[in-house]
Amino acid sequence: MKIVIDGFGGDNAPDEVLKGTALAVKDLGIEVAVTGDIETLKQRMEALGISDNGIELVAAQGVITTEDNPRSILKANAGTSMGVALNMLSRGEVDAFISAGSTAAIVLGGTMIEKRIKGVKRTALVPLMPADGGVKYAVIDGGANLDCRPEMLLQFAILGSCFMETTMGIKNPRVGLLNIGTEEEKGRELEHETKKLLEKAPINFVGYVEAREAPLGAVDVLVTDGFTGNVFLKACEGMGVLMKNSMKSIFFANLKTKLGALLVKKNLKGVLKHLDYKEIGGSPLLGTAKPVFKAHGSSDAKAFFGAFCQAKSFVENNAIEKMTKAIASIVPEEAAEDE
Amino acid sequence: MKIVIDGFGGDNAPDEVLKGTALAVKDLGIEVAVTGDIETLKQRMEALGISDNGIELVAAQGVITTEDNPRSILKANAGTSMGVALNMLSRGEVDAFISAGSTAAIVLGGTMIEKRIKGVKRTALVPLMPADGGVKYAVIDGGANLDCRPEMLLQFAILGSCFMETTMGIKNPRVGLLNIGTEEEKGRELEHETKKLLEKAPINFVGYVEAREAPLGAVDVLVTDGFTGNVFLKACEGMGVLMKNSMKSIFFANLKTKLGALLVKKNLKGVLKHLDYKEIGGSPLLGTAKPVFKAHGSSDAKAFFGAFCQAKSFVENNAIEKMTKAIASIVPEEAAEDE
Q1: Chain A residues touching residue B237 (CB < 8 angstroms)
Q2: E-assigned strands of A90-211?
Q3: How far apart are CA A239 and CA A219, in angstroms?
Q4: Which of residues 57-86 of A touch B (CB under 8 A)?
Q5: What residues of chain A lie within 8 A of the CB of B242, using their CB?
Q6: What's the pTM value of the predicted model, to 2 decimals?
Q7: Using one digit for the tens of pLDDT, what is the confidence trace for A32-81?
Q8: How far apart are CA A263 and CA B100, in angstroms?
Q9: Which residues in A lie closer than 8 A to residue B107 (C-beta atoms)?
Q10: Whose CA is closest to B122, among B101, B146, B103?
């Protein structure tokens, strides 16, 4: 298996990309192509003591930034580290793609350079969020599609369920529809119409779920439109930061509390690690015909390694094939042709 | 000043209602009317050692529950502890109303039994949320109006701003519009159209704000539609519970961490108290022509006392009068007549 990674995507590129790559080559037994300025990559590998065993360096020029128009990934920025990597995936030279670069460019490039799975109306970025008890759940859509129709949410539910089952190893994932209550009459027309579709879908649909219950482990896949999904994710993120700041204010209050901090340090670290989105690895872009993963912009070597693990598991378990079959089962052949 | 409280609303009624009432009478120098079964109230007051000084008991029969149709507060359940209290407010016998009972019944009763402020299209329940640094911010709408038009959000922004200024003592409150990014093009049509109105409104509008920034103290008033607002609130609540559970798992891991817990206990308690929605007191129902406060269902005496503090401050600072003027300044006389 060979995975391509955007060598210059993310705040800590290329060093952390290279360190994560070295870990992946060693521990996962995969080959990795790294795109970017070859001289710089070679120098950094030497400085970091990383051998070129299992690593192919692929020439690319410059980086697409978050300030660039994401559409420029198609032409003007096609030769950047991200553009070259996406085109390698598109030509079938690699099995999966990872980048910590501009989210908008990954979503646009992943959708335009790659094809979508037959019948899929929209692609969606699917972040994994920490829940109580050390588990994780997927939020789909995390922000790509602000105005969604029920049929789109149905597809998201199926894609998210396939992902959690194939890649995250969760049997029969519980799929919930985000709503402001669990009673029949709660919610907007979008929720009411989507619920009817999800009840008939080939998934383990557990009904409406309130935003409060998702971080407490009620679902494996949380389905909602991209606007609500993004608000949900960022509210969770903000509360996470608030809590971390609060803990700091508790532990650094005085000498006594600092001693207390020393005693719980190890356990605290483990819990914070679970709650840290950086540790989670990549968010897949689901709906594309080939595996596209977005790593967090502030990813370090460990986070990149996590993204490699996900991508490998995704490929090994034929996630795309299973998604294609599941989508075909709900989309009549004619309708799919229209797309 | 006289405030009426629903004696049997909430999980801990009537004992915690009565204890909170006794505190309010003593510390705030107000009179309180408590509605409900008089015999029971008298017995509980005697058992709790609460004198009837400053407390009027007002006869009512039964309680409206969350299972009851909220509309029944208007007729079938008009004689319950909540119905009697609302009607006292409506007749002008008291200056403000507090209940920890069914939210839906309070919103419906507060809107139907009371009149709305002239020109106000919809009422909204406005929870106060904990933010970094020990401060609080208001979320409007918290869940009453799922589909909102820009004009409604404009009114919510003005009502919320007036509330934070008059009742919570925040000068020139920062009003932000919840969105999935701060760039011009981010968001749905609702956000784009609302932004135009807020820019011209008599408030301190700080522009779009991401869900992540609100718990970190970026705004005093967070404006959004009721669906998104409710998802936001409940996501924050769920993350709060997740964090509390995580802290428990840290501190109760072993003997060493338990000792650590002892050392930070006092500081931990203070922080948790700030983060606990129960401590915040009441959520006002804004837009009604008289003060209506919803206390959390699980309120204890302290939380009820907090609601009394808010209601008193609201009345003393002529919040309704100021809201009426502010709404009139944006609603032409003719438009107001149509309502």
Answers
A1: 211-212
A2: 96-99, 124-125, 128-130, 136-140, 174-179, 204-210
A3: 20
A4: none
A5: 130-132, 215-216, 275
A6: 0.90
A7: 999 999 999 999 999 999 999 999 999 999 999 988 999 999 999 999 99
A8: 41
A9: none
A10: B146
